[in-house]
Design brief:
43% of the residues lie in helices and 21% in strands. The chain is α+β, with helices and mostly antiparallel strands. It has three domains: 141 residues, Ribosomal protein L30/S12 (60s Ribosomal Protein L30, Chain: A, 2-Layer Sandwich); 108 residues, eRF1 domain 1 (Translation, Eukaryotic Peptide Chain Release Factor Subunit 1, Chain A, 2-Layer Sandwich), CATH 3.30.960.10; 114 residues, Nucleotidyltransferase, domain 5. The protein has a five-stranded mixed beta sheet with strand order 7-6-5-8-9. A four-stranded antiparallel beta sheet has the order 3-2-1-4, with helices on both faces. The longest helix has 33 residues.
Length: 393
């Protein structure tokens, strides 16, 4: 991994950390992340069932996904009745069948995550490709779900044209219309009587520019009122002339994630979402790069741990501030001589101390003690054995 070294600047470093935790604060308010944290913090009970299944959003393929999940549920049923008494297996299978019946297979995304234990029963749609996983363990496998929450965004989309404007509420790759209170219907509401006013200006173009500016300022005022009740970024969409003018007059710069130029007067919601997704992907890349720069600076400050053994020790010592892990990195392990020690060499799968994936346990430990997690693309942490931790001290 190549990291840009800016030289250590404690003010810059702390400011970047503050931005990460501010993002975390806002993200915490989404229902899905609250539910994810609830799964993480829930009482651990054995067995806990985790099913992660790749699915398709194409209508004709939903029957295949339905049949595939049936086979997986039958597989889980066989394992439960083989490994556990009937008094344990029957209630769990009852919960699993109830969840299965609630799933709308005709409206799936790219993945499903299903979690069942004595205390919990949850199902989530995932908007990114996943690998099939069926795990019966002491706790849930929540990495895919956490990745989803970290890369999904609540946001607003403001469509502006001289013919009208529209406010949309978005989550991840879907948008829907919301009421834009008190917003002007179109630019005509601010139209100046050209016959009576043009003499005061050099030409009609000046009049049109003034009319447009008044219209956009009114829209910006209404957007500010909306943002006073919502902690989420805004994406502005419009033709080049309107976007350029809006940039020059807006008082909501801090909330604007970016601009998309184009004519959206007749665009469908899926078309709008497709254009907006480009900015959301850029934001994810920017967040990832910011985390990597923070790691580089923490190395200069000697507040870090790299490699799963050292990261484990620091996390258990409650020193974890920000865990960086490659998206698909996993590592089977065994508990060592004490809770601070992890063995990853010649792991015995039949041992009582066996851990199917120590990375999942690490994620839970860091979050439990108030830290945060950042996922990066595979290969970005190869020089640090795929995992690193920024520590408090």
């Amino acid at each position: 991994m190549i990291l840009v070294n800016f030289g250590f600047d404690s003010h810059h470093y702390n400011r970047m950390l503050s931005r990460i935790y501010l993002r975390k604060k806002y993200t915490m308010e989404t229902t899905q992340l609250q539910e994810t944290k609830h799964l993480i913090n829930a009482k651990k009970s054995y067995p806990s069932i985790s099913i992660v299944l790749p699915t398709s959003n194409k209508y004709r393929q939903y029957r295949q996904d339905e049949e595939k999940l049936k086979l997986i549920i039958n597989e889980v049923e066989g394992k439960l009745f083989q490994q556990f008494p009937t008094s344990v297996a029957v209630p769990l299978m009852g919960k699993l069948f109830e969840l299965y019946q609630e799933i709308d297979f005709s409206h799936l995304s790219e993945g499903l995550a299903i979690y069942v234990s004595r205390e919990q029963a949850e199902v989530f749609n995932l908007s990114f490709p996943v690998k099939e996983k069926v795990i019966i363990d002491k706790s849930f496998e929540i990495r895919d779900l956490l990745y989803e929450t970290k890369h999904s965004h609540d946001y607003l989309v403001l469509l502006i044209s001289s013919k009208g404007n529209k406010l949309l509420k978005g989550f991840n790759r879907t948008v829907e219309a919301v009421d834009f209170k008190d917003a002007p219907k179109d630019a005509k509401e601010w139209e100046i009587d050209l016959h009576s006013k043009v003499g005061n200006f050099s030409d009609a173009k000046v009049v049109k520019d003034i009319t447009l500016e008044k219209y956009l300022r009114d829209i910006d005022r209404c957007l500010a009122l909306e943002l006073s009740n919502r902690d989420c970024p805004v994406i502005i969409c419009g033709v080049e002339r309107i976007v350029h003018k809006y940039k020059s007059i807006t008082k909501n710069n801090n909330a604007i994630l970016g601009y998309v130029e184009g004519n959206f007067d007749h665009a469908t919601f899926p078309e709008i979402a497709k254009h907006v997704a480009v900015l959301l992907d850029k934001k994810n890349v920017s967040d990832e790069n910011e985390s990597l720069i923070l790691l580089d600076q923490s190395i200069g400050k000697n507040t870090f741990a790299i490699g799963i053994r050292d990261v484990w020790k620091a996390a258990v010592e409650k020193r974890g501030r920000l865990l960086l892990v490659e998206k698909n990195y996993s590592c089977p392990a065994e508990y060592g001589k004490d809770k601070f020690t992890l063995n990853t060499d010649e792991v015995n799968k039949d041992s009582i101390n066996y851990i199917k994936d120590a990375v999942d346990d690490l994620i839970e430990i860091v979050l439990k003690y108030g830290g945060d997690v950042a996922f990066v693309e595979d290969g970005k942490l190869v020089e640090h054995n795929h995992i690193a931790l920024i520590t408090y001290f």
